Amino acid sequence: MAQATQEFGEWPLKRLMTEVCGSGHKSADDLTRAQATEAFERILAGEPDPTTLGAFWLANRWKRNTPEELGAYVDVMCERVEYAEPDADPVDCGANYDGKGRTAILGVAAGAVAAAAGTPVVVHSGDRVPTQKQDAYKHVLDELGVHTELTPSDSADMVDETGFGFYYQPAFNPAIDDLFDRRDQMGVRSFVNTVETLANPAGASVHLGSFYHLAFAKKVVDTFVESEFHDLDRVLMFQGMEGYDDVRPGYTKVAEWDAAEDSDADGADDADGADGGEAGSEGASFDDFDIETAEYGMDLEEEDLAVDDVAADSAAITEEVLAGERDGAFADAVAVNAALRIYAGEDADSIEEGLDAAREVIDDGSAHEVLEALREF
Questions:
Q1: How far is CA 84 from CA 122, 124, 196, 289, in A?
Q2: CB atoms within 10 A of CB 215
Q3: Main-chain dihedrals φ then ψ at residue 260, nearest 5 degrees
Q4: How far is CA 23 from CA 19, 27, 60, in A?
Q5: pLDDT tens, 103-157?
Q6: Phi, psi at residue 255, to the nearest 5°?
Q7: In angstroms, what CA-CA distances link 302 with 44, 127, 242, 290?
């Protein structure tokens, strides 16, 4: 331990537990940026014993991480990420890597539609990571016959050639992938589940993600602001099904942050929760607004999007919707999710305009051409 202390500094995880964050969720103190940085450096180096590491992850979970802590964790991770930026500037879709287990994954179809409409999209995931170890982007793409175990450089080329790119976590973020067994033994989510979705391996200027509660969207925005590595222009997040980046049918809250001072969101209802000063950097804009799928003529509920085999059924739905062979709930859901990606990339001024663009490229076959290009890549 003395050697580890000399290498890393003065804050082994056991000392952080004893003196800072381990006294319970009400009395625990938050870590400074320097303490959080050292803690995650030790974790990624494999220094803490399993008991201490598990206790530290639980202590962070109980007390709830601050944006300063999460920003430090993100930056330590990003120092180890292999970045490969395409010539295009895509929308980075950071869905929960531990996947979905009940409803279809719509982001592959939605991403292909957005790409066909002129909004490049990047998605990334691991391979059934803890805690849920359910299906994610990779597994739908595998079922569709798209190569997924790519180098980051190949992933960047995929974006430029097709408009849609997949980055595989073990290839671009091996330091986090190396934590798989310890995370699996832990049995519950930790801050790693949050920060891994914020890696942004394509260096995109726009992040699209999901949240259960609006407060988490604000925390993610503030995490990006606290990060010394990331410099985003825009963040769009919404209440996703199963915590994934598939928008819920019915009523959904959307959070929108822009770094530019004069970039208020068109259609955002300032009277309904806009509070620009509470999240983000000085001069930034943070708004939240509501969308209802019924307002777009979509009569669907979340149970309408349930499937038996998430990977296989999602792939079949993707194929059928993009080929124009399926309408109804799944086609509507793909269209609205594509519209949000197009809107996030600022290639449409409203969700309605994004929907029009999405439906046009489905109808004229352009979206299915993106899928075929992915298969050929």
A1: 12, 13, 16, 34
A2: 13
A3: -75, 140
A4: 8, 6, 11
A5: 999 999 999 999 999 999 999 999 999 999 999 999 999 999 999 999 999 999 9
A6: -115, 140
A7: 38, 25, 10, 17
Distances (CA, A) of 371 to 3, 50, 55, 127: 53, 43, 45, 21
Q: Are 253 and 104 in contact (CB under 8 A)?
A: no
Strand order, beta sheet including 91-93: 164-168, 121-125, 91-93, 206-211, 234-239, 251-258, 285-292
Burial (0-12, 13-18, 19+ Cβ within 10 Å), 17: middle
Give residue 330's Cα distance to chain centre. Answer: 22
Which of 84-93, 197-206, 263-272, 324-333 is least confident? 263-272
Amino acid at 344: A
Tokens of 149: 């175990």
Q: Which parts of 1-66 fold into alpha helices (H)? A: 2-8, 13-16, 33-44, 50-63
The neighbouring-strand residues paired with 255 are 237, 288
What's 18's DSSP letter?
I
CB 35 within 8 A of CB 65: no
Q: Are 67 and 185 in contact (CB under 8 A)?
A: no
Give residue-wise pLDDT tens across range 232-279. Answer: 999 999 999 999 999 989 999 999 999 975 444 444 443 333 444 456
Tokens representing 172?
Answer: 């671009």
Amino acid at 269: D
**Contact at 8 Å (CB) between 189 and 131?**
yes
Three-state DSSP class for residue 306:
strand
Is the alpha carbon torsion for 93, 281, 71, 78 positive or negative?
positive
Residue 291 tokens read as 């969308």
Find the Cα–Cα–Cα–Cα dihedral 311, 316, 319, 323, rounded to 10°.
-160
